[in-house]
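Worked problem 6 (solution included).
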Amino acid sequence: MKGFPIRRASDEVHERIDALREYFGRDLVIVGHHYQCDDVVAHVDRVGDSLELARMMDSIEARHVIFCGVHFMAESAALLARPGQRVYLPAPDASCVMSEMTPAALLEKVFDRVSAEGRRVLPLAYVNTSLAVKAVVGRHGGAVCTSANADRMMRWALENGDAVFFLPDRNLGINTAERLGLSESARALVNIRRDGEQAFLPDGVRLLLWPGCCAVHACFRPELAEAARRKDPGARILVHPECSPAMVRASDGAGSTSYLIREAESARPGSVLYIGTESNLVHRLMVHHAGRVRIEPLTESTCSNMLKVDAESLLRTLEGIRRGDAADVRVDGAMTAPARASLQRMLDYCAR
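Solution. The predicted structure is:
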């Protein structure tokens, strides 16, 4: 894949990782997100999207869980961990630009203002948020969602509240609303400037949107779909719903990473797919389906924070666990119950 950074650690690093995994046996499980590089995915026991990884925690009995992803994912895993389980993030500085667009203190102020007139506003937070934000959402009776279940969770919120406050990704919020048939007049972008002083819930609005977005998916534009169709007239264009509404409308389908994987698996032999999401996943699909389906990136886009987790940092984490000095992901005790409640509402509702 032209322009795509192939990362490969030394054979010695991979051999040491394998030896330590064998040493720990069933006492250790490594999980990873689909956006991780192949060098890391080669060592994970379970791989999935955000929803799948959250659901996995209930079935993991190992004492040590290494989470190969970004910080908010590891926090969620720590929230859902069993007593005595420890969760580790190989790159503690692997943050998420989108999650940082919603400071918890600002959210609290804005929420107080938009709910001041007595209408029941339910916050619905994309899983790409901090523990502190999930705690705010949980305290106000809200829930978390992922791109895989955003339709179900937004419908739940609309049925149980007078209005829904969706955060932080305005694109996912708008794309979900359009699938549910919520008119444009019933949606509004909240004004968070001046420390939220100008925030309010307009009359007739049922969906209030925080003005955040994903930097990885912001680069996918409708003209890229037009160029792909000119080059391959019969190709299908598939994108992630974190892309702009204009990009989603220009595509043939939009969905979570699991949706994109299923579409690649079920594509007719000889067909061509252009996929608009993080390049590590697209590259993996290209290799896996080579010779049966031609898969192309709509354009190259990698998550710099996901790339902070590599084979070397995974090895350092394993060695630290063996020595007994590896730092695990800790959650603030005061935030634990409300944050877990926001996650559990999603898991319980989607288990029906």
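Discussion: The chain has three domains: 11-96+306-330, 99-213, 222-297.
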